[in-house]
């Protein structure tokens, strides 16, 4: 009888502990058909079936445990999902510098553990840079078409081939940083701030391959404004990339939403970042800025359209300029499944590489064209 009673108590305690723990499997599967003109000389149009055409396909595990009334343990593991080929994860520089990244990370989007309480949230691991989680919410296209979105690839410094090996990734994508510590303050009347530091973990150097950033925001649940600033250092510690961004989201009515952002960055110090036709290009003083504005219109609960425009500029080493104009329509079949279609026009100042590079693949570099159209349609399912 005593053993039976103890067993029942243990069952109750286990059930109580389980009730306080949560584990969620989640993800997005986005399958799109894309037709893109002017990808190579002689027209060179391209037709493709792509994963993550509108929003990046991904899967992840998110969990938490309430260990007392004022403290919760959190973790997140999230991976890019290329369902068109079955692969997962993305590359970064690894322990050695690589312009485009060579080490494949399964949980490339997030891999962190942290604690949250009345004084804020502290997390450690591979995490988004601060601009993504603050100014990213004001992206004119709501971060649509991430693979060619100027705020993702340029102000988010995602393109290692363009930006070089700044930050703790030592190449590849700088949008997320390895070995990072992040602190998010509690929100006070809608306002808050965040701090982040990622050491390069190199012997005899606390500056090399590091990232440090700060951001602040205000939101009333409807409208909001955010700003972020960060410094990335190269593997030698002698060169840095300073980046800043600001954005605003405004909902004048239930049907209309306006988002606008401005971001920029500048290279300080001698560092070689190859570009087409000049593999020994010195990027010291190079500046890139991205400005954009977008408007959402909710036709009815299931149908929303977005019109957005971006202007990207390069200066300091060679001048460059390109623009993107997008129209996106989404129709919700259910609370989890969306049909979408989009039309994008990219226009560069000239067919030269320093201009077409800022079109981020919509115009083929070396194609001889300074403009291109992209048509995309597809389905997105959230689980």
Provide an overview of this structure:
- This protein is mainly beta and about 375 residues long.
- It has a domain at about 25-40 and about 50-290: Porin.
- The chain is about 10% helix and about 50% strand.
- The chain contains five helices and 20 strands.
- The chain has helices at about 1-20, 130-135, 150-155, 160-165, 355; strands spanning about 20-35, 45-50, 60-70, 70-80, 85-90, 90, 105, 110-115, 120-130, 175-185, 190-200, 210-220, 225-235, 240-250, 255-270, 285-300, 305-315, 320-330, 335-350, 370-380.
- Strands 1-3-4-8-9-10-11-12-13-14-15-16-17-18-19-20 form a 16-stranded antiparallel beta barrel. The chain has a two-stranded antiparallel sheet with strand order 6-7.
- About 40% of the residues are buried.
- The model is unreliable at about 1-20 (pLDDT under 50).
Q: Main attributes?
A:
Porin, 20 strands, 383 residues, mainly beta, two-stranded antiparallel ribbon, 16-stranded antiparallel barrel, 5 helices
């Amino acid at each position: 009888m005593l053993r039976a009673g103890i067993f029942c108590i243990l069952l109750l305690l286990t059930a109580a502990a389980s009730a306080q723990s949560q584990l969620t499997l989640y993800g997005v599967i986005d399958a799109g058909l894309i037709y893109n003109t002017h990808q190579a000389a002689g027209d060179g149009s391209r037709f493709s079936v792509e994963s993550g055409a509108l929003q990046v396909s991904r899967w992840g595990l998110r969990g938490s445990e309430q260990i007392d009334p004022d403290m919760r343990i959190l973790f997140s593991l999230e991976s890019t999902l290329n369902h068109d080929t079955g692969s997962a994860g993305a590359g970064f520089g690894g322990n050695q510098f690589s312009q485009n990244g060579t080490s494949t990370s399964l949980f490339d989007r997030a891999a962190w553990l942290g604690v949250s309480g009345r004084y804020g949230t502290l997390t450690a691991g591979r995490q988004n840079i601060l601009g993504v989680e603050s100014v990213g919410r004001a992206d004119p296209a709501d971060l649509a078409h991430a693979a060619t979105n100027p705020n993702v690839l340029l102000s988010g410094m995602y393109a290692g081939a363009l930006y070089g090996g700044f930050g703790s990734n030592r190449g590849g994508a700088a949008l997320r940083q390895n070995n990072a510590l992040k602190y998010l303050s509690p929100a006070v009347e809608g306002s808050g701030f965040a701090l982040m530091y990622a050491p390069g973990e190199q012997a005899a150097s606390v500056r090399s391959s590091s990232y440090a950033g700060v951001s602040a925001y205000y939101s009333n649940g409807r409208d909001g404004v955010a700003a972020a600033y960060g410094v990335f250092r190269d593997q030698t510690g002698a060169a840095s990339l300073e980046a800043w961004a600001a954005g605003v989201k405004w909902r004048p009515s239930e049907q209309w939403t306006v988002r606008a952002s401005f971001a920029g960055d500048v290279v300080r110090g001698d560092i070689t970042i190859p570009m087409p036709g000049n593999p020994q290009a010195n990027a010291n003083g190079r500046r890139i800025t991205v400005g954009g504005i977008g408007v959402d219109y909710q036709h009815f609960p299931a149908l929303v359209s977005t019109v957005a425009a971006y202007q990207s500029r390069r200066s300091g080493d060679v001048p460059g300029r390109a623009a993107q104009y997008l129209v996106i329509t989404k129709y919700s079949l259910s609370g989890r499944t969306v049909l979408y279609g989009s039309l994008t026009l990219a226009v560069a100042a000239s067919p030269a590489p320093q201009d077409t590079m800022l079109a981020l693949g919509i115009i083929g570099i070396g194609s001889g064209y300074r403009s291109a159209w992209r048509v995309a349609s597809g389905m997105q399912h959230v689980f």
